[in-house]
């Protein structure tokens, strides 16, 4: 499955936020780190390929961090899956903190007094050989009031590999050693 245009990527991220992430936060009080992988049908195992082709839908695999013991194991697992199945379109979903305009970068965002809660969706697209083609990110700043998500702002950006992308997720799902 390819997301050909920036609009398609942004629409998919908005759909994830509206129909999965925000309801998950409001229903359970947390959003787990997870990967959403969209393999090309040609690289699916035969039994899965038959089911996907019959349904007319695109295959999507979810890899939650609860499946492993640590964030490092999660990155290793997602890296293994994307490379083994030649997955070219991957999303990472997380609930995190951001700090804007921080002068003291020695304080982790989770400990910073001016932190903002944010959902982050990170998209990575590679070619069939795993070479990074582009990344995109949506940040949704929010606050939780009476178990309801109150959005403050959504920001969407797209970057190409020549922009010196620094991302553990992009590194995990691509074959680039310069990411």
Tell me what portion of residues adopts beta-strand conformation: 25-35%
Which H/E pattern describes the elements?
HEHEHEEEEH
Radius of gyration: 17 Å
Q: Count of helices? A: 4
Briefly characterize the structure:
This protein has 179 residues and is of the alpha+beta class. Helix content is 30%, strand content 31%. The model has no long low-confidence stretch (mean pLDDT 89).
Task: From the structure above, extract its key features.
globular; alpha+beta; 6-stranded antiparallel sheet; 179 residues
Overview of the structural elements:
This protein is of the alpha+beta class and 179 residues long. It is built from four helices and six strands, in the order αβαβαββββα. The chain has a six-stranded antiparallel beta sheet with strand order 2-1-3-4-5-6, sandwiched between helices. A hairpin with a 5-residue loop joins strand 4 (116-126) and strand 5 (132-145). It is globular.
């Amino acid at each position: 499955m390819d997301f050909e245009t920036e609009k398609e990527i942004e629409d998919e991220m908005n759909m994830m936020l509206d129909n999965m992430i925000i309801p998950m936060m409001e229903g359970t009080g947390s959003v787990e780190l997870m990967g959403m992988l969209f393999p090309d049908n040609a690289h699916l195992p035969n039994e899965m390929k038959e089911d996907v082709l019959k349904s007319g839908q695109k295959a999507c695999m979810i890899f939650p961090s609860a499946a492993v013991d640590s964030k490092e194991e999660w990155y290793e697992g997602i890296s293994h899956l994307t490379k083994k199945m030649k997955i070219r379109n991957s999303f990472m979903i997380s609930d995190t903190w951001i700090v804007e305009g921080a002068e003291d970068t020695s304080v982790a965002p989770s400990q910073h007094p001016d932190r903002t809660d944010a959902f982050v969706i990170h998209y990575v697209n590679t070619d069939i050989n795993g070479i990074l083609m582009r990344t995109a990110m949506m940040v949704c700043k929010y606050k939780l009031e009476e178990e309801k998500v109150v959005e403050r702002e959504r920001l969407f950006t797209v970057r190409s590999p020549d922009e010196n992308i620094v991302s553990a997720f992009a590194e995990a799902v691509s074959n680039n050693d310069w990411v």
